[in-house]
Design goal:
alpha/beta, 7 helices
Length: 262
C-alpha cells in the first residue's frame, strides 16, 4: 500500500511463471524463420524460356482475350505470334499451335469468307494434327458458315461441321462449370473448370462429332466440339482459373511440334 515491494515478490512471480507458462514453447515460436518465397498458384517459379510458338488470331474480328491468359502462356514457354485471319494469307511459320479467341466475326463475315487462302492454311494445319483452340467467335469461324441477320450465309473455314447464325437469336450470358469429356490440349478427361458464355449467335446445326464439355450446372448438356486436335467451344476460359490449363496447352503444342518436325 505504501508503494514498496515485498522482498519475495519477484521470487513468487518467477515461480508462478514457471508453473503456468510454457517458456520453451514461446521461445520456439519466437525463433527467426528462414525467408520463404510462397509458391505461385498459377505461374512457374521463374518464366520458362520460349519452347514453342503459338499463333494468336488478333485483328478487328478477333480480339477478346484475357491478358492474364497470354501472360501465363508466355510464362510457361510459349512465344505468342499474332496473325490476322482477315488480312494474312498464311499462318506464321514454325508454330506448334493456334489460339483463336472471341470477337465479332459476324461483323466481318464477308472479309473473313473471302480470305480462302487462310481457310486452306488452317484446314491443312488441322489435318496435320496441329492443336487449334477456338472460343466463341473462333468456334463460329472454324465452322462451315456464318449467317447474318439477312439470312445470307458466308462460307468459313469448315474444320468443324457446324453453321452459326445471328438471325433471330437471343443473348446467351452466364457463368458455366464444365467437365472435360476426353483428354485434350487443355484438360484431361474428368477435369472441370469455370468459364462463361457471352454470345448473340447460335448454332443452326449441331455437328456429329465428339463434344468437348459437359456443362455441370446446366443438366449436363454437351457443349463444344472436337475434330482431331481442333477444339471449338462457346465457353470462354480464363487460363488462370485452373493451374494446369496454360501449362498443359503449351506442353501439348510443344509435343506436337517436336513430333511433327522429327
Amino acid at each position: 500500500r505504501d508503494g514498496t515491494v515485498r522482498p519475495d515478490f519477484y521470487d513468487r512471480l518467477a515461480e508462478q511463471v514457471r508453473r503456468t507458462i510454457d517458456i520453451d514453447g514461446i521461445l520456439a515460436l519466437a525463433a527467426p524463420l528462414a525467408p520463404h518465397q510462397p509458391e505461385s498458384i498459377i505461374f512457374p517459379h521463374e518464366p520458362l524460356p520460349p519452347k514453342v510458338a503459338i499463333a494468336l488470331a488478333m485483328d478487328k474480328a478477333f480480339n477478346f482475350y484475357y491478358p492474364d491468359s497470354l501472360d501465363l502462356l508466355r510464362a510457361w514457354g510459349a512465344e505468342i505470334v499474332p496473325f490476322s485471319p482477315l488480312e494474312d494469307r498464311a499462318l506464321p511459320e514454325s508454330i506448334g499451335g493456334v489460339y483463336i479467341g472471341g470477337g465479332f466475326p459476324e461483323l466481318y463475315a464477308g472479309e473473313l469468307s473471302d480470305n480462302e487462302t487462310m481457310h486452306s492454311a488452317l484446314r491443312s494445319a488441322a489435318l496435320r494434327g496441329m492443336p487449334v483452340y477456338a472460343e466463341c467467335g473462333g468456334l463460329m469461324y472454324l465452322g462451315d458458315s456464318i449467317e447474318d441477320e439477312k439470312t445470307h450465309e458466308f462460307p468459313m473455314v469448315g474444320i468443324l461441321p457446324c453453321r452459326s447464325t445471328i438471325n433471330g437469336t437471343r443473348l446467351v450470358l452466364g457463368y458455366r462449370e464444365v467437365e472435360a469429356l476426353a483428354d485434350g490440349p487443355l484438360m484431361k478427361r474428368g477435369e472441370s473448370v469455370r468459364g462463361h458464355e457471352f454470345h448473340l449467335s447460335a448454332l443452326k446445326q449441331t455437328p456429329d462429332v465428339q463434344a468437348v464439355y459437359r456443362v455441370l450446372d446446366q443438366d449436363g448438356r454437351h457443349e463444344g466440339f472436337r475434330v482431331n486436335n481442333v477444339l471449338g467451344s462457346y465457353i470462354h476460359l480464363h487460363l488462370a482459373s485452373k493451374r494446369n490449363l496454360a501449362r498443359d496447352f503449351v506442353n501439348f503444342c510443344t509435343a506436337w511440334r517436336e513430333t511433327s518436325s522429327s
